[in-house]
Each structure stands twice: as structure tokens, then as C-alpha cells.
Automatic annotation (TrEMBL):
Entry-linked SUPFAM superfamilies: UDP-Glycosyltransferase/glycogen phosphorylase
Domain Glycosyltransferase subfamily 4-like N-terminal: 20-182
Source species of the chain: Pyxidicoccus fallax
Superkingdom, taxonomy of origin: Bacteria
Keywords in alphabetical order: Transferase
Protein name: Glycosyltransferase family 4 protein
Length: 378
């Protein structure tokens, strides 16, 4: 089977959506598929830092590419919002027997609703440019691609429910398929007990952004310090300069902090095995790879109920689910884990066991089965 995967990013294994796209493509190839990609790398070969203009132009680049090459492929698996011009033209050049799949790495509509809610609450400030494209026409493009595709692949049940009930996508044309864990996250050592009297080792993984909950990170660390809780906080993959991140915290809290702005993806397990708890106060996630990667590394998550956390964090068993923005509850959860290390160890071990079956081979097999079903229908 020949598959073309399209994505509106530069392909880089060390970043979220591009990294999982490459992992899926590699896993499909191990099952016998031939996989090609069409990304910003191919559409704009000379750019290093894509901007809004590249996002606006990408659907038309995809359509021009499909006009030339669609006949080579059995399946065209393209990110939401990017194949609609070609689909509306009647899929010119496609094989009589083919499948058009549109894939979401986090539904833009649910993300936009959370972003606007945060803006109304004063947590973020939206640019005047936002309503011109991302907050308007882009949402229309995404809905068009969902309605015109043979199947939509979404990452979580909340996005699937929204697409069905709010966007009018038929239920039988929606599949929920998440992500797998890369090989370095399998068969990691089982968590060991904490040293008596040692600080609670807390990690945050993700960009230093309001939607990732950076204000909660500051508030929680400040409150734990005021309560006399012994802890350390390591922030991985902030993308921001260390000084910028540290400056957001009170001076008395900074000695407890460690900032790792960037890391090579395969090194994350080594970093996380030094930690005990993942603090994940994100406001919106399509999937949230950080949660399952941390759990595989033996960390107990204290997470917002977003993305995959709803499925894998069983309250009080594999971690804690805390409402978005509830700082007091977040502080309470972390404090209780710091005070009860036996419970924390049991939770860490349960968390690691919970995600061991999440492999890219399984995700690829489910994806290939979907492709085959769609081709039989055609």
C-alpha cells in the first residue's frame, strides 16, 4: 500500500506533531507500506522558521502537489484544513480506488474555545491578527476538510464528540486513534523508593506558554515553598531562555528550579528517571505525549483533564486529575504526595504499568486496518 502523509509543519523528530508523524510513518513502513511525506520541508524548501503566511498558503501547495502525484497513492492522509481545495475540486488525478483521510493533532475548534476562554479570563492576550485567520477562516478550512474526507482521525473522545455534535461530521466517519510510545520509553526500570527526607522531585514538560499552564507552575511552586514543602521543580522543553523562565518565579523559589529549554527526544527518559511526579497543568491538548512518556518513565502525573490524561490517569491510582486552573487543588495534590511516599511509589508503579501497551506498532496496525477498510468501501 502506498501512503502519502501531509502535515503543516517542518518535519523534525524532536517536536510534537512532526515527531509523531515520523514515528507513525516509520511504523507503517515496518508493516509493509510505502510512505512519502509532504510537509513544509517540501512546500517551502528554503524556510527555517515558518510563519502565518506559510500556513495560509499550505493548503494550496498541497492541492498543487496532489494534482501531480495523487495517482501514485492508495491513501492520502493529510492534516485537517489542508486538503480541502483539492477535495472540493473533486479530487482530480486520484485513483478510482483511493482513500482521503484527514488527521487532527488537536482539533482547532476546541483549542480556540479554550484560548478565547483564557483570553476572557485575562490569562492570555490575543493578537489583533488572531480573528483574521486562525480564529475564523482557518476554522472553516478545518471543518471543510472534516466533511470532505472519507474518514477523520482524531486524538481524543472530546474532539470526536465536538466534531460530531458541533461540526456535523457523521459518527461513522470519525475514528479516535492516539499515539504510541517511542522505543526508548519501553522496558524502563521500575520506580524505586525515595530517599528518606528527600525533596519531592517534580517535573513539567512542555513549552513555556500560558496555555500550557505556566502561571499555575509559578503559583503552585510559590505556594509549596510558603507551606514549607521540600521539593525541586525541573522544567523540560520550555523553548524559552532559562533567565526568562526563572524571572517569572519569586527569587526565594529559584534555587529549587532547573530549566532545560531544549532536549533531544531520545534523551527525555534519562532526564525523567531523575523525577517522581509530572505536574501537567495544561489548558488544552490534542493528545499530550508528555503525560504518557512521563508515566512510562515512572512518574505519577498530577494533570489537568485534557487529551489522553482523561484515559490513562485513573484518579488516585495512576495519578491525580485536577480541574484546569485550580491552584489550591494542585498544591494539595502535590503536598499529599510529598507527605506520603509509599502512596506515591505505588502510584508511580501503577502509572508505568498503565501505558506499557501503547506501542507505535499497535497504532500503525490500527491505522492500516482503517486504511484497508476505507479502500474496500471505495
Amino acid at each position: 500500500m502506498r501512503v502519502l502523509i501531509g502535515i503543516h509543519h517542518l518535519l523534525d523528530p524532536n517536536f510534537g506533531a512532526p515527531g509523531v508523524t515520523l514515528a507513525l510513518g516509520n511504523a507503517l513502513m515496518t508493516l509493509g507500506c510505502e510512505v512519502d511525506y509532504f510537509s513544509f520541508n517540501e512546500a517551502f524548501p528554503d524556510i527555517r522558521e515558518p510563519g502565518s503566511s506559510h500556513e495560509v498558503r499550505f493548503p494550496w501547495k498541497v492541492s498543487a502537489h496532489l494534482l501531480r502525484v495523487a495517482s501514485r497513492y492508495d491513501v492520502l492522509d493529510i492534516t485537517t484544513g489542508d486538503a480541502w481545495p483539492w477535495a472540493r475540486m473533486g479530487r482530480p488525478g486520484a485513483r478510482a480506488r483511493h482513500a482521503l483521510v484527514t488527521r487532527s493533532h488537536g482539533l482547532e475548534h476546541t483549542f480556540t474555545e479554550r484560548l478565547r476562554a483564557d483570553a476572557r479570563a485575562g490569562h492570555v492576550k490575543l493578537s489583533w491578527k488572531y480573528p483574521l485567520y486562525r480564529g475564523s477562516f482557518r476554522l472553516w478550512e478545518v471543518r471543510q476538510s472534516l466533511l470532505l474526507a472519507d474518514q477523520s482521525v482524531l486524538l481524543n473522545t472530546s474532539d470526536a464528540e465536538y466534531a460530531r455534535e458541533r461540526l456535523g461530521v457523521p459518527a461513522d466517519r470519525i475514528s479516535v486513534i492516539g499515539h504510541g510510545l517511542d522505543a526508548p520509553f519501553h522496558a524502563l526500570p521500575q520506580p524505586r523508593p525515595s530517599e528518606p527526607g528527600a525533596p519531592l522531585r517534580v517535573a513539567c514538560v512542555g513549552s513555556w506558554l500560558p496555555l500550557k499552564g505556566n502561571s499555575e507552575m509559578v503559583a503552585v511552586a510559590t505556594r509549596l515553598h510558603a507551606l514549607g514543602v521540600s521539593f525541586t521543580l525541573s522544567l523540560y522543553g520550555t523553548g524559552s531562555k532559562e533567565d526568562e523562565v526563572l524571572a517569572a518565579f519569586p527569587a526565594e523559589v529559584r534555587p529549587r528550579l532547573r530549566v532545560v529549554p531544549r532536549y533531544v527526544r531520545v534523551e527525555l527518559p534519562r532526564h525523567l528517571q531523575q523525577e517522581e511526579v509530572l505536574f501537567f497543568p495544561s489548558h488544552s491538548e490534542g493528545f499530550g505525549m508528555a503525560v504518557v512518556e512521563a508515566m512510562a518513565s515512572g512518574l505519577a502525573p498530577v494533570s489537568s483533564p485534557v487529551g489522553v490524561a482523561i484515559q490513562v490517569v485513573r484518579e488516585g491510582v495512576t495519578g491525580r486529575l485536577i480541574p484546569i486552573g485550580d491552584v489550591e487543588a494542585q498544591v494539595g495534590a502535590l503536598r499529599s504526595l510529598a507527605e506520603d511516599r509509599e502512596r506515591l511509589l505505588a502510584m508511580r508503579r501503577a502509572a508505568q504499568a498503565e501505558v506499557q501497551s501503547m506501542t507505535w506498532r499497535d497504532i500503525a496496525a490500527r491505522t492500516l486496518s482503517l486504511y484497508e477498510t476505507l479502500l474496500r468501501k471505495r
